[in-house]
Write a structure and sequence with these properties.
The protein has twelve helices and 15 strands. The strands form three sheets. It has an eleven-stranded mixed sheet with strand order 14-13-12-11-10-9-6-5-4-3-15, with helices on both faces. It has a two-stranded parallel ribbon with strand order 1-2. Bound molecules: iron/sulfur cluster (SF4). The site of iron/sulfur cluster (SF4) has 14 residues, from α4.
Length: about 425
Amino acid sequence: MIPTGSEEARPRTTTITLPEATFSASGRECAPPRLASSTPASPLSPSPEAPLLLTGLTTAQIEEFVAALGLPRYRGRQVADWIYRRNAGSFEEMTDLPRALRHQLAAVASVGRPEVVARTVDADGTTKYLVRLGDGQTVECVWLPYREWSSVCLSTQVGCPMACAFCATGRGGFARNLSAGEIVAQFLLARAHAPCPVTHAVFMGMGEPLLNTSAVLQALHLLNSECGIGARNLTLSTVGIVPGIQRLAREKLQINLALSLHAPDDETRARFMPVAQHFPLPVVLAALRDYTAATHRRVTLEYLLIAGVNDSPAHADRLADLVLGKKEEGGPLLAVVNLIPYNETEARFRRPSEEGIRRFMARLKQRGVAVTRRLERGETIAAACGQLRREAASDAPGARPRRSPRRRGTAVART
Ligand code: SF4
């Protein structure tokens, strides 16, 4: 979901062409993965053909799984402790389990630690991983250090069907949903390599989380209850899948919800976000109002500032109107606008000038809108989502040569 430049700023009429089973205006989810690494039909039945990915299970479920093998339940607690709290990446590392038991478990289950295909490290410490899943598909996750805390940005799908024009992932198409275990495994991998505690997680990597809601909800639950990440330190970002927002409202989670808004009206939005043709802004904003009413949580409106596309004073005024709301629309939206100056890594879209960014921000403030500017991290390491994956693909034998993005202070390791 972290945007990058990839296509020029021209009117875009592309419709989202998605398999019938993956997405509809009623918000049906994308098809679940059909892989051994995903949760099998009978999730807790041991099967050598489909090793169970334990990172998708709670401690109680791992106990149940272990009990189904005829083992004492406390062995399940030991395994869960190794996975979630002691960062074990394999059964071999679980040294207080008898060797025979470790082999028995490895025959029917997996700890799911993905293989690191490439790793890039920015001068600010931001570390981006390209990881290979059990079926050979690759996704990205990012560790982001801040002064007093650190966070992991997680992918929820292999590719993305939403086709946002500014996004490298969107250009690559959609392959499949990730299972909860595959999402949590990214977190565990990044945490295992992090030099300081990881306190936050954001669902802003590859994919639209609310097209994979069941797995994402399970992953949120596991990160909270098993990995110790407070609900208020978990953030989910969506382009505005209304049925998914409604489901989150019903769940009444205390997580942070962010909308990738990027334009104050449907006409501008549809130029680079095909989702605008499926879920018009008035419908999305009504869902957000219901969400804030149900959870009492302020939402974040992510606004990517693109020069000449959505950064004029008129756009700022329309954005303010939208946040402040008319009385008949429900009044002010409980929201903060987060401005994200466009990252020009390989852009035909352009970043506004610093003065233009400041003017836009000041105009919103003048109108009484709460506004922040996103701290830009990992600028030099193909920071936008899908970029590292695309670069790895273009480095593959037979791939077309690519333009080199501008880089400073970058360390790249391919394994
Ligand atoms: S929704 Fe998909 S295409 Fe759009 S920015 Fe997010 S990952 Fe990219």
